[in-house]
């Protein structure tokens, strides 16, 4: 029986995409231990894993680019990665010594855990639920919200911007990161994405139409496709009682300045004939005033709402976007940061939705965007035919077992 140790960053959006893969591995006979958010431990145990909580200094940390002063920047993101690295390294190293796994899995944002996995000498893998942060000139850099192109001008743009983007990241991150790595006798890196490239396996839970394989990625990258796993819940009778067509409105589960999306959607959809189901995620639902044709809550089973939704209005999180794309539901995406600009521009370019700049967000512009998106329903259904929403867990588990088999056969990391 293989023993697999999994450590996540403090975000459900990083935990949930890998859960179905872990369930698949457990069914195949593996023993899985998950280190994750404290309030997800029981859920993981109910799925048949052993589980433990992240230490408090990690459990209570914001995993993204959000600072209390509202600053969103490369520096804010890299500071967060460095701030968490030592605690991640120490906790994973300690757990390895007690659990004695055959393989380690970490998510793409757990920088310290990746370094601990690298230092352990064990086979290890990284999973990523969004665009991979690997240097590439085969497409525009992530974060700029640029439409991929195939013309000579687009290729020249991508090469130039890739090198500028790398320089910015390395100025913000590399010196601090290398200083920290040396405290653990790990070699300095020449480029920020080296720890990822050193992993024997990188699994991307993403795929067409939002992401395609890049020609200059390492062979260790596998696009396994999106995961649609969500915690099992009982159907919400409030949702079942809605008789009007539904517009699902989602805010991020990771704190960011997207409260304007929920408030504007409530105003825009009043008297529209659509019932707004608003999930506020990291925001307090009590700060919003419901209308006669709305339901406002922090969480609701998205799968239940998507079963009958006519349109999705969202910040552009990869999870909800890929679920809507797989169902052929048109989207209105109002991106506030992180990978959301790239998600928005690719959905818009593919014809399955509309991108609306948050600076232009008003009830009037949002209502118009919803009308346009609804007119693209047939295009959204066409796009759904190329979304590989089934089988990602099986593909991911197969790749993990390949690494384990190579370890057993050769005694070395594949």
From TrEMBL:
SUPFAM superfamilies recorded: UDP-Glycosyltransferase/glycogen phosphorylase
- InterPro entries, per database record: EryCIII-like_C, Glycosyltransferase_28, UDP_glucos_trans
Residue stretches making up the Erythromycin biosynthesis protein CIII-like C-terminal domain: 293-388
Q: Entry's CDD domains?
A: GT1_Gtf-like
Please give the PANTHER family that the UniProt record associates with this protein. STEROL 3-BETA-GLUCOSYLTRANSFERASE, STEROL 3-BETA-GLUCOSYLTRANSFERASE UGT80A2
Q: What is this protein called?
A: Glycosyltransferase, MGT family
């Amino acid at each position: 029986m293989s023993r697999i140790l999994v450590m996540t960053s403090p975000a459900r959006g990083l935990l949930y995409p890998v859960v179905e893969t872990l369930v698949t591995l457990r069914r195949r006979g593996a023993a899985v231990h998950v280190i994750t958010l404290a309030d997800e431990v029981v859920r993981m145990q109910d799925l048949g894993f052993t589980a433990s909580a992240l230490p408090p200094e990690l459990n209570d940390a914001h995993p993204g680019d959000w600072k209390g002063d509202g600053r969103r920047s490369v520096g804010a993101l890299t500071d967060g990665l460095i701030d968490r690295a030592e605690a991640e390294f120490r906790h994973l190293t300690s757990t390895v010594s007690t659990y004695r796994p055959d393989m380690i899995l970490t998510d793409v944002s757990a920088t310290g855990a990746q370094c601990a996995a690298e230092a352990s000498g064990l086979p290890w893998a990284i999973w990523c639920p969004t665009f991979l942060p690997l240097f590439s000139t085969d497409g525009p850099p992530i974060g700029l919200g640029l439409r991929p192109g195939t013309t000579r001008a687009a290729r020249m743009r991508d090469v130039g911007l890739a090198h500028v983007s790398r320089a910015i990241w390395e100025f913000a991150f590399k010196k601090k990161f290398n200083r920290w790595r040396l405290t653990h006798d790990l070699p300095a890196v020449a480029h920020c994405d080296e720890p990822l490239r050193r992993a024997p396996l990188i699994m991307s839970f993403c795929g067409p139409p939002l992401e395609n394989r890049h020609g200059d990625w390492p062979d260790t990258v596998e696009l396994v496709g999106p995961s649609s796993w969500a915690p099992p819940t009982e159907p919400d009778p409030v949702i079942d009682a809605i008789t009007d067509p539904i517009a699902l409105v989602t805010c991020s589960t990771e704190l960011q300045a997207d409260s304007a999306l929920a408030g504007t959607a409530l105003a825009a959809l009043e008297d529209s004939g659509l019932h707004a189901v608003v999930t506020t995620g990291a925001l307090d639902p009590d700060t919003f005033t419901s209308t006669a044709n709305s339901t406002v809550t922090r969480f609701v089973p998205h799968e239940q709402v998507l079963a009958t939704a006519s349109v999705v209005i969202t910040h552009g999180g990869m999870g909800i976007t890929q679920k809507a794309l797989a169902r052929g539901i048109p989207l209105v995406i109002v991106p506030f940061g992180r990978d959301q600009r790239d998600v928005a521009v690719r959905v818009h370019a593919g014809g399955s939705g509309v991108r609306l700049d948050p600076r232009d967000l008003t009830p009037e512009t949002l209502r118009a965007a919803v009308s346009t998106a609804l007119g693209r329903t047939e295009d959204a259904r066409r796009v759904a035919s190329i979304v590989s929403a089934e089988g990602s867990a099986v593909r991911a588990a197969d790749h993990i077992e390949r690494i384990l088999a190579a370890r057993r056969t050769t005694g070395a990391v594949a």
